[in-house]
Amino acid sequence: MWTTPHTFTPLFLSECTRMIEIQSQMTERALELLALQEDVPCFILDIGCGSGLSGQTLEESGHFWIGVDISSAMLSVALEREVEGDMMLGDMGQGMCFRAGSFDGAISISALQWLCNADKTSHSPPKRLFKFFSTLYSCLSRGSRAVFQFYPENSEQIELITQQAMKAGFTGGLVVDYPNSTKAKKMFLVLFTGGHQKLPKALGTEEQQNTGTDHIPYSDKRERMKQIRGKAPKKSRDWILEKKERRRRQGRNVRPDTKYTGRKRSGKF
Amino acid sequence: MKLITHNMLTSKSLKGVNVGFPLKICATEVKEVAVDFNPEFVTRMIPKLDWDALCQAAESLGCLNDLPRSVNPNHENDEEFLKKAHHVLLEVEVIEGELVCPETGRKFPVNEGIPNMLLNEDEV
């Protein structure tokens, strides 16, 4: 599980076969979430394109891409790989400097979390995130999407990122594939420019809620366990407290439990 | 850097820049490559392009040839036109040189085909 990518040098990272496999699977999933028209060659922005692994997956699907990355070492590897996309050296936190409506879509694999770190004392992560999202919003064509696979350190980072994205005009949210598996779990931030849309369905989950035990990935087993455990009656205070605890385990931002939690409300609610 | 990319690129992340387009190209090394012709892609891209800026850029690199100065409204069916557009957009690459901001004169170096758009802290 990739939790500390900065402990590996860029070259090792890109050449490790398993990493290559994982990166390309994540790119394919991101492409799927991008929901482009079938069999139409599109113009895609690859944010944090690194050594060109994700770009090559885009090429294989018939798209033309422009990549931006902050590391000239990574881009050199991409050049050696002879990728077809055009690349540039750039810092996402300084803004995406493209004309309005240039791209049919944007993807980003394992890069967004870097914007949450203040590398220099002058950096303000929320400011950089906002600069990034607002300029990205304008260079995407109306109705197109931006999909980010990323590794948030905690729920505060998720909150920070989504807040700045919404502030910039995007709608959308988090799609968490295989939420119950420590190894397979992947987070995708799916952003829309065309106004509210239904979030795509996550992989590896039959329903929105967990039952409360973390290690059951399949619905049949889950149903059996539910009957054995005996769930609290729906909407009771116990049910609400259980649900909030489940959501905390999923890493979501949940209000603390107080004496008001699950209190009886008058008919107006 | 291909001319299709140049057609989308601006310097507007620079403090004080309003439009920052088009960037002037001062190329010291230009390469021509062969890229598979995809008429559908070219057709889809044409409405997004700033055609004048494209012609200007192509001219400055000496590859304008007989590319029409204005876009034919019926371009989807004009294969000759699409092929010329394809060549200019995708088959001409600036390998070494500079891109210059039209409002501030700030230069962005291009090395090995890669423009360096990183800004200094005081330029953001």
Explain what the structure shows.
The complex is a heterodimer of chains A (269) and B (124). Chain A is built from eight helices and seven strands, in the order H-H-E-H-E-H-E-E-H-E-H-E-E-H-H. Chain A is of the alpha/beta class and 269 residues long. Chain A has a seven-stranded mixed β-sheet, sandwiched between helices. In chain A, strand 2, helix 4 and strand 3 (86-89) form a beta-alpha-beta unit. Residues 208-222 of chain A have low confidence and may be disordered. By secondary structure, chain B is α+β, with helices and mostly antiparallel strands. Chain B has one domain (3-117): N-terminal domain of TfIIb (Single Sheet). Helices cover 27% and strands 20% of the residues of chain B. Chain B contains four helices and four strands. Chain B starts with a helix and ends in a 9-residue tail after the last strand. The A-B interface holds A 40-43, 62, 64, 66, 68, 70, 72, 75-76, 79, 84, 86-91, 94-99, 101-102, 120, 122, 135, 139, 141 and B 1-2, 4-5, 7-13, 20-21, 35, 38, 40-41, 44-45, 48, 50, 90, 112-119, 121, 124.
